[in-house]
Amino acid sequence: MFANVNPQQLWFIAILLVALLLFVTEWIRTDMVAVMIVVALYLTRVLKADEALAGFSSEPAIVIAGIFVLSGALHVTALSDKIGALIGKLAGRRPGIAGPRRQR
Amino acid sequence: MPEGDQESLARVANDEAFLMLVPFHAEPKLRRKAWLAGLIMLATISLAAFNLMSIEMAAISGAVMVILTGCIPINQAYRSIDSRIFVFIAGAIPLGAAMQKTGTATLLAGWLQHAVGSWPERMVLLALFALVAIITQFMSDSATTALLAPIAVALAQALGRAPEPFVVTVAMASVVAFLTPIGHHGNLLVYGPGRYRFVDFVLVGTPLTAICALIVVLLAPLIWQG
């Protein structure tokens, strides 16, 4: 069963397991772990440089950056305040439906 | 909502001791652009939703538009980008590429096929669901389905079962991205501002995923009987 595992797959599985362990325990900050993944996949020759760095131009990364700017615009124009206030008004005194919640 | 003159409000907003969930110090000049910002947001969502543009190009075009139209000063636009989240996702993405390139997903599926030979059908489906749900955390939903659906068909044939429940299980499991913050854009967007930990998503996501798995595994063999 394990005979058909090649070294690349072993490296990948090792990196994946260590990454998951670090993500869950947060012994190292998750963004740092993510960069370590890029370096590890490259150093073990699992991925070429361009493949290892492809995440920076990947769809999720670009979407996240774009949406952050868009929601930033909603914040500075106070539109998100207005929408929040509107939802709060619609919910009235029933915070179970919507409305501002206290910070933990 | 706090009230007071602009200067003291700004002082509160800039004080580290107060965590501002919603900034309340918008300048009047920018407040007048609120409708424009909303319009651009709606246009961005529509372009992506109706497939007129790929979602990443729609998002970046929307970002360019809010800056060009003066809805947000460019410095503030840069500050809005949570670079920690950006680096986090950019770094985690190659795991999916590596999983595909090294053929590890196929390898795992092979192990699964080996292990479940004598199990009852629903247990096989449950194991398949679990495998796919884990793989989809690192690979996109569509790539996971495309890669594992043929494997599911082969698995069904090897077991002498109808393939439909197996393929549906793969399709459903690959959109179950609740397990980790890297599973889905939506999770990522709240991960930073919400100050969640990685495990918070796992703690909420695991029971949710288990419920979905049970529903699919119970229903699929009833709907498609081999």
Unreliable segments of 5+ consecutive residues of chain A: 99-104
Total strands of chain B: the figure is 0
What is the N-to-C succession of helices and strands of chain A?
HHHHH
Oligomer: heterodimer
Mean pLDDT of chain B: 85
Query: What count of structural domains of chain A?
Result: 2
Mean pLDDT of chain A: 85
Helix content class of chain A:
55-70%
Largest sheet of chain A: none
Helix count of chain A, per DSSP?
Answer: 5
> How many H/I helices of chain B?
12
Q: Which structural class do you get from the secondary structure elements of chain A? A: mainly alpha
Instruction: Give the CA-CA distance, first to last residue of chain B.
Output: 61 Å
Shape, principal axes of CA atoms of chain A: elongated
Write down how many β-strands of chain A occur, each being a DSSP E stretch of 2 or more residues: 0
Radius of gyration of chain B: 23 Å
Give the gist of this structure.
The complex is a heterodimer of chains A (104) and B (226). Chain A is mainly α and 104 residues long. Chain A is 66% helix and 0% strand.
Give short descriptive properties of this protein.
heterodimer, A: 104 residues, mainly alpha, 5 helices, elongated, disordered C terminus, B: 226 residues, 2 domains, 12 helices
Structure description:
- The complex is a heterodimer of chains A (104) and B (226).
- Chain A contains 5 helices and no strands.
- Chain A is an all-alpha fold.
- The model of chain A is unreliable at 99-104 (pLDDT under 50).
- Chain B is mainly α and 226 residues long.
- Chain B folds into 2 domains: 6-82, no CATH class; 86-223, no CATH class.
- In chain B, 72% of the residues lie in helices and 0% in strands.
- In chain B, helix 6 (83-101) packs across helix 8.
- The model of chain B has no long low-confidence stretch (mean pLDDT 85).
- At the A-B interface, helix 1, helix 2, helix 3, helix 4 and helix 5 of A face helix 3, helix 4, helix 5, helix 6 and helix 7 of B.
